[in-house]
Amino acid sequence: MTPEDLDFLLSDAGAELLAVAAAQDFSSGALVAATEAVRRADPVHAAAAIDVVTARRRAAGRLRGPGRLLLTDEAVQQATAWPVAALRARRLAGRDVHDVTCSVGAELVELVATADRVVGSDLDPVRARMAAHNVPGALVCVADALRPPSRDAVLVADPARRAGGRRIHDPERLSPPLPALLAAARGRDHAIKCAPGLDVSGLGYTGEVEVVSLDGSVREACLWSPGLSGPVARRATVVRTGPAGAPGHWGPPRLTGEGLEVHVEEVTDIDDDEVDALPEADRFLVDPDGAIVRAGLVRHWARRHGLRQLDPRIAHLTGPSLPPGHTGFEVLARHRLDRKELRRALRERDCGSLEILVRGVDVDPDALRRSLGLRGARPLALVVTRIDRAAVVFVCGPRTADAGPAAGQP
Question: What are 138-192's pLDDT values in tens digits?
């Protein structure tokens, strides 16, 4: 998107071209005809209009009200899903907040609903202008995230975590580099988003590391400064969405929007973590949400739901019932990790399809599945784990869900 494209799209003629593009079908079978229709209307600015319209469609469910926003496909890919951004904004309610990597303003949309005053800035003048259009309630300027022009506002940042289409795992290679960003934020309250797998252990960070999942997918780790985190050093935030009004067991929704209810479970390192580790399985096996595992809070979550560990070093949990709103596997039998023995056991149970979970054992699930020669009709599951240094396999019924809201797609 060039500055000239943006000037045009912000004009009345640009609004008309966007309406023409919005009426087209850009699916693969109709792409050529749709593109030609927009080019006939304006060959100069057609590409920019198509980018905005297709980005709006991709943002449906991910951002609030995308049909009114000026977006690009790249900006949508990097934007935080609205339930996660809205929960962060709630933690910053009543504060002055400066998003120093605001891009097109996806995070600003949520911040202006809770914060006292909101500033956004970006090095890209075009993105900054798009953000100013998208979020008129925020003051937006062009500025370097490492030299924020604000003084006392909480700094929010989301350094770019991709280059050439690939994820970046080195904090020094983020844009801006995470160590430099932390140095620029020193002495100020801040919330800095990172990839969930990013290793921050070598940074000497003393605030809270919050790992967030959305509908079963781990999305980010957020670094909260000590002034915003209190005594908490690690937090897992499990976010589930479902259709508004659907029955569920997570209690009242924390947020609503876009036809969805947002339910949240939080676990922290100051919660009780006293649980037993016994090598025998109870009725159900439970695999905790990825945010809980990555935050190192498996024992804390197990204590909350009356579960125990099979092995103190492995995340698989067991208990007499499933935690409300979560899934698990009913245990049918226990076996050694012996393919011949497993093949016979699965044949006896008429197994035709198999979900395989592996923790603590060097096993390729796909290779194991192929080696078992499944020919039956019944769906089952294998939980391959380690107990007291020995590989153990539990043959289980198919994944069972405790009744709760159906997962959404933001």
Answer: 999 999 999 999 999 999 999 987 666 677 677 888 889 999 999 999 999 999 9
Question: What are the residues whose beta carbons fall under 8 Å from the beta carbon of 394, sequence distance 6 or more?
Answer: 281, 285, 329, 331, 332, 333, 334, 335, 382, 383, 385
User: What is the pTM assigned to this prediction?
Assistant: 0.91
Contacts by 48-55, CB closer than 8 A, 24 or more apart: 48/1, 48/2, 48/5, 48/6, 48/8, 48/9, 49/9, 49/14, 49/17, 49/18, 49/20, 49/21, 50/21, 50/26, 51/1, 52/9, 52/18, 52/21, 53/18, 53/21, 53/22, 53/24, 53/26, 54/26
CATH 3.40.50.150 fits 77-230, yes or no: yes
Give the separation between CA 22 and CA 54, rounded to whole angstroms.
8
DSSP 8-state assignment for residue 99: E
Q: How many CA atoms lie within 13 A of 244 on its CB side?
A: 6
Domain coordinates in residue numbering, the chain: 3-58, 77-230, 284-401
For 63-90, give the DSSP string: BSSGGGS---HHHHHHSPPHHHHHHHHH
The alpha carbon dihedral of 294, 300, 306, 309 has a sign of positive
Sign of CA dihedral 115, 119, 125, 129: positive
